[in-house]
Design goal:
With 163 residues, this protein is an alpha+beta fold. The chain contains three helices and six strands; from the N terminus they run ααββαββββ. 18% of the residues lie in helices and 34% in strands.
Length: 163
Amino acid sequence: MNDDVQSGADGKQDAASLASLSEGYVPKTVASGPLAGSPIARFSAWLGIEVLEADGGRSVLHLPLKPELANRRNTIHGGAIATLVDSAMALATRSVEVGLETRGTVDLNIHFVSPGHGSLTATAQVTHAGGSIAFCQCEVRDTTQKLVATAMSSFKLRRAKAL
């Protein structure tokens, strides 16, 4: 837990302390396409994840190699890869239609195929978007195009209300 966030006797974080963490924060946003201007999750931005493409139920995200993301074998840590695939599939889902929002990841299944060398690129595709759940798949490749991981996920959906 962040040392700057206070915790009450019941273990819940003090809302005022959490709100203070956002003071002066300018969110990183999607640069182009139908989601242009949409904020990227703070944790994804902190990791350095960049959105290369997000349109028509497909997204491509890039995770640059940074020493802070290394595991003890000097490859990108599986937790960073998990965030990369979750972010890629969430953005692919949001790009299916105007006003579509994800309400959260329902499940996330990752197969780590091989260690990645260098920066990583995730390509995600929505395979089905129903009334309340979307299903996605994703591949992660390294700079040599070697397959690093595959993933599948489902997301709870919230559609914009009709006027």
